[in-house]
Amino acid sequence: MKVAILSRNSKLYSTQRLREAGLQRGHDVEVIDTLHCYMDITRSRPAVRYHGEELPYFDAVIPRIGASISFYGTAVVRQFEMMGSFCVNESVAINRSRDKLRSLQLLSRKDVGLPRTGFANRADNIPDLIKNVGGAPVVIKLLEGTQGLGVVLAESNKAAVSIIEAFMGLKANILVQEFIAESGGSDLRCFVVGQKVVAAMKRTGPEGEFRSNLHRGGTAVFCKPSKEERATAVKAARVMGLNVCGVDLLQSDSGPLVMEVNSSPGLEGIEDATGKDVAGIIYDFIEVNAKPNKTRTRGKG
Fold it and tell me: Which of 59, 119, 208, 269 has the fewest other C-beta atoms within 10 Å?
């Protein structure tokens, strides 16, 4: 099959692993810089152009769309969809998961376990917002934050009010969530491929740090999730409509709680911690679900 990997950096571990895994299986794999793509939107024959030339038809597209380019990146993915390529994650699902507020609302509607979360626009609603999620300590998150950036733990109600007012003063959109103390600064990353948890790791932040992100200095070890944790991760992926994703869970006294569903999860941490060929598992999914047709022309079908 002819496979495109949409990635801004061909040297990233995840991009390299996906390219190598595809080549090892005999696929024709090309890494394409998402922001260098531009779209020819025309009747009956949509196309993507790249460095002055029209790209060929790809049987499968693996989007690695960073949060900073979500709008343009998903537009490119959508154009490949219009051309008939099988996209591992569809543009609408990527957008759905990138909107943290929308994703939590959708998960809540489908009865997926979540930390109690509040969202408000006016400063005079702050005291009740904090009270409604259980009071301090509370976690305050920027909607646009990634990799643990823009996430603050407020130890007291007074501190929470000050932090929320400061964010609101900057016109920043924030979520306020209950603090799950029993998680002990750890979370569980479940890597879902095709409605199945194929690998999982437990991430723990450095001493004194409540965020467990590996980018914040956290460590990761192999973990075997429980049946309930697996079911929660798979359900969260299904609600988002994602075929490949990382679902971050907190282990609480009331069961697993979803923190986030990541549509472009990194492969390095999960492969190092588990020893599993996650890139190869992604190709297993592609080979079953993509419909290669060597005689097919771009924009038809």
Answer: 208
